[in-house]
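Our collaborator T.R. sent over the components below with a one-line note: 'Predict the complex.' Nothing else. No constraints on interfaces, no templates requested, no preferences about which chain binds where. So this is a plain run: every listed entity goes in together, and whatever single assembly comes back becomes the starting point for the next discussion.
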Amino acid sequence: MTDRHYCPHTLDEQKEMLADIGVSSIEELFAPIPPELRAKTFNIPPGMSEFETFARMQSIVAENSNDMLNFIGGGFYDHVIPAVVDHLSGRAEFYTAYTPYQPECSQGTLQALFEYQTAICRLTGLDVSNASLYDGATACAEAAMMALRVTGRNKIVVDGCVSPFSRQVLRTYLLNLNVAVIEVAPLDGMLNRAGLAEVLDDSVAAVLVQNPNFFGSVDDFSPIADQTHGAGALLIASVYPISLGLLKSPGEMGVDICVGDGQSLGNPLSFGGPSFGFIAAKKALIRNIPGRIIGETIDKQGRRGYVLTLQAREQHIKRHKATSNICSNQGLCALRGLIFLSSVGREGLAELANLNRDKAEYAKEQLAKIPGVTVLRSAPTFNEFTIFLPRPANEIVTGMLKLGIAAGVPLGDYYEDSANALVVTVTEKRTRKEIDLLAKELEVALCN
Amino acid sequence: MTDRHYCPHTLDEQKEMLADIGVSSIEELFAPIPPELRAKTFNIPPGMSEFETFARMQSIVAENSNDMLNFIGGGFYDHVIPAVVDHLSGRAEFYTAYTPYQPECSQGTLQALFEYQTAICRLTGLDVSNASLYDGATACAEAAMMALRVTGRNKIVVDGCVSPFSRQVLRTYLLNLNVAVIEVAPLDGMLNRAGLAEVLDDSVAAVLVQNPNFFGSVDDFSPIADQTHGAGALLIASVYPISLGLLKSPGEMGVDICVGDGQSLGNPLSFGGPSFGFIAAKKALIRNIPGRIIGETIDKQGRRGYVLTLQAREQHIKRHKATSNICSNQGLCALRGLIFLSSVGREGLAELANLNRDKAEYAKEQLAKIPGVTVLRSAPTFNEFTIFLPRPANEIVTGMLKLGIAAGVPLGDYYEDSANALVVTVTEKRTRKEIDLLAKELEVALCN
Amino acid sequence: MQLIYELSTPGRRGVKLPASDVPAAAALPADLLRNETAALAEISELDLVRHFTNLSRRNFSVDTNFYPLGSCTMKYNAKVLENAAGLFAPIHPMTALLPGGGEFCQGTLGMLYDLGQLLADITGMDEVTTQPLAGAHGEMTGIMLIAAYHRAKGNRKKYVVVPDSSHGTNPASAAMVGYEIITVPSAPYGDMDIELFKKAMNGEVAAVMMTCPNTLGLFNPHIQEISDIAHSHDALMYYDGANLNAIMGKVKPGDVGFDVIHVNLHKTFGTPHGGGGPGSGPVGVKKALIPFLPQPRIVMDDDGLFQVETANPLSIGRTASFFGNFGVMVKAYAYIVMLGREGLIQASEQAVLNANYIKEKLKAWYEVPYDMTCMHECVFSASRQLAHGVHAIDIAKYLIDRGYHPPTVYFPLNVKEAIMIEPTETESKATMDAFIQVMIEAAQTAESNPQALHDAPLTMPVGRLDETKAAREQNVCCAG
Amino acid sequence: MQLIYELSTPGRRGVKLPASDVPAAAALPADLLRNETAALAEISELDLVRHFTNLSRRNFSVDTNFYPLGSCTMKYNAKVLENAAGLFAPIHPMTALLPGGGEFCQGTLGMLYDLGQLLADITGMDEVTTQPLAGAHGEMTGIMLIAAYHRAKGNRKKYVVVPDSSHGTNPASAAMVGYEIITVPSAPYGDMDIELFKKAMNGEVAAVMMTCPNTLGLFNPHIQEISDIAHSHDALMYYDGANLNAIMGKVKPGDVGFDVIHVNLHKTFGTPHGGGGPGSGPVGVKKALIPFLPQPRIVMDDDGLFQVETANPLSIGRTASFFGNFGVMVKAYAYIVMLGREGLIQASEQAVLNANYIKEKLKAWYEVPYDMTCMHECVFSASRQLAHGVHAIDIAKYLIDRGYHPPTVYFPLNVKEAIMIEPTETESKATMDAFIQVMIEAAQTAESNPQALHDAPLTMPVGRLDETKAAREQNVCCAG
Ligand SMILES: Cc1ncc(COP(=O)(O)O)c(C=O)c1O
Ligand SMILES: Cc1ncc(COP(=O)(O)O)c(C=O)c1O
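Returned assembly:
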């Protein structure tokens, strides 16, 4: 016991405490553990100082390619993050607090999350939001389970254009629940409306779509909402929140439950996490929403305040009858999302969305000029689009990685007969020069 | 006026405000400035977003060699900085406050600076400290001016082993004051005691020494204190605070005023600033100390609190009769110093000092093995020492820079007849491997 | 404080965006566009900063207050861990999933792999997946693995057994995987009644979920027997690792018969809780369950390179988008590396020391329903105070006025008026002594002036809030 | 709150140091060693973090409160600037001073050079040194340059002229350079009386130091005349740039006859003040003074490379250890680059708009000693309130209770009971309107209930403190 910077007691203090407890050693406190159960080995290496630890972490970082030029998305996007986001979410009172169980001394978190819920409602055009879920993919699954509960049905129809990762998570979640998951194969990178019509019947709890979808296509799901509602099912849409600066909102389309991943809202790529999932729904569904919800109320003096509300939905009250098992969510990431949205602001989000689309359209046209490359033009796109190469995309992508360019996500790994298709993502962070470089290097790669 | 993120008013608000003021345009508010005096040009480039700005700054950083292996000191030292220092000094309430003129709403800064003063007193073994000066060099000058005031004399004797930068600043400060600055030329990298005796008479206000000195030599100035006091002068010592984990304190030596640079205490190298200067003195000198001083007191209810005290010394009260012109100091850097010292702690500072010395001694012996290299061994050293090369140090240093090693500070630029001398600094951050690399590359360089 | 939307002014901005260097694209068809922009905040950068800075000041937190919230392990979160996590900000997770992309992510993949190895050693498991995003997510993943295991043997089974002291997530997670729950009451020794347990067991039980030490902070002396019985019915033993902070280096759940475990990195491994999350809930399993682990799974090939396995047909599939809450794992990994063997053992020892100290010092004032040596937390009952009309919640609110975050109250459910105190190992004796004194004053005030406790807190921006009104009005989104 | 030393326990540590990888050196001779270790804090990392975090919460600051402290330009400090400064943390200043070292510091040297160019353009000067470490340090440097200039002409002269409204640093800085001070009273139009000024001038005056707009926030209409008169006596004009925030892009001091200027980067250029500093006070000069600029001086050679000049014999020498408060300059540089031409002009315009708005809104309630269009700040007198026994300080303390940092009070010295309000350009109308309302309430309370103002503040951790006791007891270091 040489260091007392994390565990502060000196030997003297420890002795005093042991005496107060009435034992003579710490070991005695572990007496309840039968000796035969005690650990025989413990092979963790010896500790080190924070300085050596930080150096170790730096050396791990150095084993990655940290300046890859990203034209990849697939659910996580390389967006600007205003400096205020780190500074404010880095306030110790935010990040070293627990879930706000005691509202009087947690109004900071509670009010912020109420503001977050408001931002999500306004962004999605829906009535109610929770205080975050784990990520976009699990949010899809939670939404599906919500629809199963609400409708009492046991079938989920999924547009094949939904991110394969979300679809995989959905399948994993539903695997044990006697629920049928029916996928409608994409048509030209869009929802196959005829395919949907074929499977949509009164056993279907929900239809899950995504906008923009994994191919980058942007759609108006308003007619689908009508069709879905006609079958007594709910329409669930997974959305990319930055696109909502520009695109028709789920609320406007008649979507019942909207979900998505909040990474693009002020959360760094960070090798995939933490980000947050959001879920918003029509008011009538509020009691079926999973996770924490913050509600406004007053104290005895009439002062406004915020509390965790409708807790009877949750596991700590309802246990196995809860709307979800979720307990810890991704609160701090949601706070970052709120700060991001509040910083960029109302007009700013529209500007940002347009900037993304402008860059992507520019890239689309540059890539379209490359001999042998064609662009999937079945639908308008936002900041991702699909191109077809004259050769397998995997091969090209692997080659371009070596040049420091992540040129896109090959579709072949996720869709049959798509070996030559590549989804290219262009955010506002990509400069014209970088886009031109992508075009140039892709052309070169295709010539080899 | 398209952006309203720094200047928040919308055009509507602005109009309203102008109407309330009773003018029709902002231009009217500038009417007091005669038209003929108005700026004819203003050639600042157009602005950009914070993202573009940050990218610009990153590109400036990239134009430096950022991973130079540092064996240089010369007043600034490459020490560890516990992570808490950034986090805590980065609390907005600390760094976006002004000087604590209003004590009731500034107790955070005030108490912290009181704790800082205490740390400096305990470290230096002196009675009183102010709340920081600009840097170590200006602190030397301020201490000298303090001695001039206290003694009413007009001569300052300076050990030539004091940092040339401090001596230059001292000369600059005193240039206009009818004060003689007498330098005692070093003897074997130490204070020439005979030389001092020669010039020390009753016209001398103070003797300024440094420990460890610019050559790296460590001395016990206790006899010099007696000698100086015998002549009715004050002894001023400039010290390297990390060394005080180990070395005899100025207080123990009988020093009257102790100064130094606080960079090594939790402030990054940052191309030379900001750091802070500290000054501590015997109690009797308190009314002559320059700059802010924090004092403890109570409120009407007897609650303990802290205030700026003895303000009658300062420029805002005494104007040209003040003890100094200093107004803004380096408070946040001093706070970093306090956090550093409190984190490393009592035993930790001793350990850190020993670690520095161990590394430097190891390096000394490795370099001593290089054919043609000799070590200045006239005195013990702390974490810097002087070696003599068989060739001009400038040439060798220039060559080694190209290998990414800053091998030391050549003395030739600062002392005559010292072209081959090199001061090598080794802090706790230098690993044995790095030290071995220095030795290896120096040997190679000397073979060429 | 005003809501951020109440501070908004049309046309104002919090940040300037980068200028465009490309031509504007042709407009999208109108039916794809939203009718009007989303009414997000419109506020200057200063007002934004001031708003959130001042909001933050309305929280208690570990960095400002003692926070002995039982079951939550609110230990100090070392600042260097935050810095370390920041280093990884720019790395895109898809890179590792591109063909040939793994080569460019050897650092991150390797760290995840190493973290898995370290956690496997700490828990006594054979392999760990770092994908689950929190404790409850880990539970669900673990139960899915158990279901897959049983299914592979021809019968996924029907029931999951939990003690009545279990955390709500345990039955909820099992239910999410389609299991029915059998709840076994606690015995007078404070843990699941072994006789009732035996009766509850049958061949259709897929798993038994235990927290050990349990939510009363007690180590179950029958744990080996329980797992033997479970295994005799081919039920697997699930370990809720929320309380792992008590036993690092002391017992390995894997040695005691547990087959599956989740750990809460945000409890035991020093990562901050973020006011709700993000957490991270890696799941460790015994060899027999490895084939079912989620995808993508990180494996080391014969050349020592880390590869991403994505197409194992036995796997339960994906449980999350990518590799889990990576940034949280960076912190946990750095925490383990920094503390090392001795540091982790010391953490558990001191956590247990502190909990017992508080228990001893307060037991003259508060009922201890199960008075024995506890592990890292101790559970009181406010039953004596109830005689004066004072509830656990009143004591909690009094503590707020005195600058302490309250302990967990009303959990575990099998203790009436429960007050569950988990000091953690990072608190100093002085802090605990001051807290003990205030707890004693609370007990004294309960006798002398119960109304004072009912009135608390008085020093916060708001007093006790009307939760019924909140639930009734369902005002969960700022109007307008 | 306790002092950190009161939280200490012998043997405790806040951080673990790196392990040694070299042999221990032989001990130093005993006479070189200290007798006992310095009694620094001995406290755990958590207790340290909690201590300073809670200390910070006892401050008002720009990020938490409106902070209209006149003469201090407490504008919002953009967070991106903090991030930018952090990028330069590892660069050692000595590198640039090593033979051949400049090559490895082209980024930092170039940035300092560019910053100088930008500031020269803003101020209308020919060259700028970035070495001075704060405003007062800049003043002293500037006066030293003036002394050197006169000395080179054979007579360093004897006097420096300042108006009575000048900031205390002006006479103090001139005195540090050995000058005697001539103070010229203000005229009824709120600035230095031009007739008295003429009388004060003579051939022994080395410099006239002006703040313009002055500390009353007024632009001196006679400024050109004053500089003409000064120059006619071969006195140089010194511009105290503390109030530059009023006039960026509007007037260039260099165009109006000023020869030397310092600017406060921590006021005008958006760098935070740090609760006392660090600031940065670059000094701009006209061509005739360039030879005297401090060393090291950064120059651009014919190849566009930046070089460090260290051996110019005419130079006044060094005024600081290295290149000034570099980290502060990074922020100021980024600030200028970010705001750009239009942004800087807008900053000045809006700063002036805000000050006039507050002046107009409050002048019915508070005496305005010089009621004319002000620039970036406005000065009231509490003289009307004094009739009720209420002083400026009482109003200040009342504002604290209402959540506002008080304006500067009792400065400038030529206004009785001065209340000097500088809102800055970054505050929103809503914030100012709320502040105005509270100022009006203060004025009303001064009439209705003066005692309430004397009693303020009541909401802070401490009330008004006994300053006499502090000065008498001189308890400036924690005993023991
Ligand atoms: C005993 C126990 N199990 C499970 C959980 C759930 O963990 P999480 O919040 O990470 O989902 C908790 C969290 O409080 C807990 O205390
Ligand atoms: C008018 C004026 N001049 C000079 C100064 C001194 O500047 P600094 O504090 O940076 O030394 C100030 C600072 O308050 C000031 O307001």
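Summary for T.R.: The pocket of pyridoxal-5'-phosphate (ligand 2) is lined by residues B 327-328; D 71-72, 134-136, 167, 169, 211, 215, 240, 242, 264, 279, 281 (CB under 6 Å).
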